[in-house]
Specification:
Blueprint lengths: L3 H8 L22 E6 L3 H4 L14 H14 L2 E7 L38 E6 L10 H7 L4 E7 L1 H14 L3 E3 L5 E2 L3 H15 L5 H7 L1
Parallel strand pairs: 1-2, 1-4, 2-3, 4-5, 4-6
Length: 214
């Protein structure tokens, strides 16, 4: 039974720690089973001939390449989460964006050097929404491999990276998004998304922390 006295007592509680300004101080454990998830490292955003290209996208390729090489050296699970829409079929996403990233189209091709390799530790996950998790095999795949942390890299920060980060968090995975490995053609929205990820969803680790976790 909740009495007035109980309510009064609760109202005197110090709620400073309950605001969204509170950031738990934790030291990341580099030993947590981790997967590297590359999101939409495809021609659409990185090839000047394609409609969604923006010059700043090229800035993230070298950091992503370094993490990918580290993951391959260590045998870390690598996920290539890429948009793969069905040619000629309706798709709800086309209501917001012109037809794009259809299977076999030039804008859906991998950026050269970022294709999956046949190591047994790399998997392509096709997606038809911004999130790498929505209606895909990714959640089940990660759980079956004992993965608890995902490092998300790729584009765009405020669209597919953010949507994937939110769904990863909702599913109980630790979410890391290294700043050097993602950006957007709308930098202010990318910055806002990283701030929200750090505050509400996961971490924006240093590049060195991300590399050490692989």
């Amino acid at each position: 039974m909740i009495t007035d006295r109980a309510i009064d007592t609760d109202s005197t509680m110090n709620t400073d720690s309950l605001t969204d300004e509170h950031t738990p101080e934790t030291t990341p454990d580099p030993a947590v089973p981790t997967a590297l998830v590359l999101v939409d490292v495809i021609a659409s955003f990185f090839d000047p001939k394609e409609a969604n290209f923006y010059p700043a996208a090229l800035d993230v390729l070298d950091p992503i390449r370094e993490l990918l090489e580290t993951a391959r050296e260590k045998g870390t699970l690598v996920i290539h989460a890429v948009e793969r829409h069905y040619p000629g079929l309706e798709d709800f996403e086309f209501g917001k964006l012109p037809r794009h990233h259809q299977i076999g189209a030039s804008d859906a091709a991998y950026v050269p050097g970022f294709e999956p390799i046949a190591s047994g530790r790399e998997v392509e996950v096709g997606k038809r929404r911004f999130s790498a998790f929505y209606a895909t095999d990714l959640d089940l795949l990660l759980r079956e491999q004992g993965i608890r942390r995902v490092i998300l890299v790729g584009v765009k920060t405020n669209v597919c990276i953010r949507a994937s980060a939110q769904d990863a968090f909702a599913g109980g995975f630790e979410v890391w998004v290294p700043r050097e490995t993602t950006n957007s053609n709308r930098p202010h929205l990318a910055e806002a998304s990283l701030e929200d990820i750090e505050r509400y969803i996961g971490r924006v680790p240093t590049f060195a922390e991300a590399k050490a976790s692989l």
